[in-house]
Amino acid sequence: MKILFLLACCLALTSASGDLSTVKRIEELDVFWAQLDPQLQMLRRLSISPEIRVVNGAEARPGQFPYQALVLSFFEGDNSGLCGGTVLTQNFVLTAAHCVQIGTVATHGMAILGAHNRQQEEPHQQRIEFASVHIHPSYIATLLRNDIATIRLANPAVFSEFVQPIDLPALSDSRTFAGLQGTISGFGRTSDEDGSPASDVIMYASNPILTNADCQAAWNSILVQAQNICLSGAGGRSGCNGDSGGPLAITENGRSLQVGIASFVHGTGCASGMPSGFVRVTHYLEWIAENTDVVLRQ
Q: Where in the sequence numbering do the catalytic residues fall?
């Protein structure tokens, strides 16, 4: 079985000091590779395409994505991972499991809310420590199964023009969302230079959401299952425009509705035209409700 993929490329590492200006790709962390299935560890020996970058995206307006969060998780060994996330309530952020568990669960962390430029402590930013991390009990790191987690904040977020919760589908929502326009957002890389840092400012791009059958046909692997949702890679726009753990959203009744959580992209590069993979939010609504204080619509 040949599976060529990378985690959404904008998941980056920085020193335990929390200096956001010195981010690295997660592929450079030994402990990340050690947890993968042996069939996937071969990817470390492959030449990683320089096209893993943010392409054909645009800079967001300040406050355009008030639900966007930065998730900074600190791990053993003086490493930390920079990811995306979404504001669910004043007390909880939604992200990917691999953003808060790499070998071991993050020892501590911080969510940055309301940021437009992550390198600046803007007046509308809120930087809140983790109180606890809740990882799906069936998360399988080797194959990115059930790649979902929630973070309880140590202090409640204060909602404003720049910090707002995202909507989630109703429990009764059985749509696949295929054919709808999906929008990804985050602080992804903007340069094809090896080791280049993540974007300072929030970027976004849009493409159609695929059927799972079409996504499976493109991947030709067992990676895409019912628990996943995929975004077309047409025009070189893909999940690497948003950090791992960040949102895939559609617009409904003038509001953003989160349907996916960024999980993986293809190893040939984000600009290759291959679909990017997300966790399907509707598959986990009951688990999200049990591990947050969000009130779901029936």
A: 98, 147, 244
For 228, the 3-state DSSP assignment is: strand
Place of tokens 């009130």: 295
Average the pLDDT over each of 2-6, 186-190, 227-231 and give the range with the smallest value. Answer: 2-6
Total-model pTM: 0.84
> How far is Cα 19 from Cα 29, in angstroms, rounded to an integer?
17
State residue 2's pLDDT score. Answer: 31
State both tokens at 77. Answer: 């060994």
Of 72, 80, 146, residue with least CA distance to 110: 72
Separation CA 274–CA 266 (nearest Å): 6
| DSSP string computed for 81-138 | EEEEEEE-SSSEEEE-GGGTEESEE-SEEEEEES-SBTTS--TT-EEEEEEEEEE-TT
pLDDT tens, position by position, 173-219: 999 999 999 999 987 654 434 454 567 888 888 899 999 999 998 87
The region that residue 179 occupies, defined by phi over 0 for left and psi between -120 and 50 for alpha, beta otherwise, is left
- Please give the Cα distance from 9 to 260 (Å, whole number): 16
Q: Out of 3.30.200.20, 3.40.50.1220, 2.40.10.10, 3.90.105.10, select the CATH number for domain 180-282.
A: 2.40.10.10
What's the angle, vertex CA 77, arms to CA 73 and CA 78, rounded to 5? Answer: 60
Using the structure block, give the residue that is written with the tokens 């560890």. 41
